[in-house]
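Inverse folding, one chain.
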């Protein structure tokens, strides 16, 4: 594959910017799908499982309840929350709106309020959980998509 990339770059440079932008959009959509599937499965891009949630403290009342372990990052993987920005030369994948702040805190392991709606909410340093990135098979899938696109031209 490494020998193919310089040849591919030269071939793509000969195409029109509008066509390269359409290809970049398609590659971005593929990357969005791969990253969304990983977030849904709670797996980091390198294939390792994400850090577990912090355990909830038991309630002060006498009844002990067994808490269900819910999936992390519900709805963050939806296409409407992940933004693909294509151009003729590159493509970027990011999160939109308020979701971007939550994603940034968890991706880099920053400190944030537990509940932002409460003025003096408890602040916690979250464990770093990489949400976006390249996985082992992503590069091959992108090259396959580019080759399929070139065959259609």
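Residues assigned per position:
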């Amino acid at each position: 594959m490494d020998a193919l990339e310089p040849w591919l770059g030269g071939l793509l440079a000969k195409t029109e910017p509008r066509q390269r932008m359409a290809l970049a959009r398609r590659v971005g959509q593929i990357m969005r799908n791969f990253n969304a599937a990983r977030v849904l499965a709670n797996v980091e891009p390198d294939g390792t499982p994400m850090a577990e949630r912090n355990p909830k403290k038991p309630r002060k009342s006498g009844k002990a309840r067994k808490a269900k372990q819910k999936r992390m990052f519900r709805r963050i993987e939806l296409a409407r929350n992940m933004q693909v920005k294509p151009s003729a030369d590159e493509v970027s994948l990011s999160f939109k709106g308020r979701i971007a702040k939550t994603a940034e805190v968890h991706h880099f392991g920053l400190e944030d309020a537990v509940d932002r709606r409460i003025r003096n909410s408890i602040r916690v340093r979250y464990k770093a959980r990489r949400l976006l990135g390249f996985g082992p098979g992503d590069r091959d899938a992108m090259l396959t998509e580019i080759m399929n696109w070139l065959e259609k031209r």
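Strands lie at 82-86, 91-95, 111-113, 123-125. Residues 13 and 20 are 8 Å apart (CA to CA).
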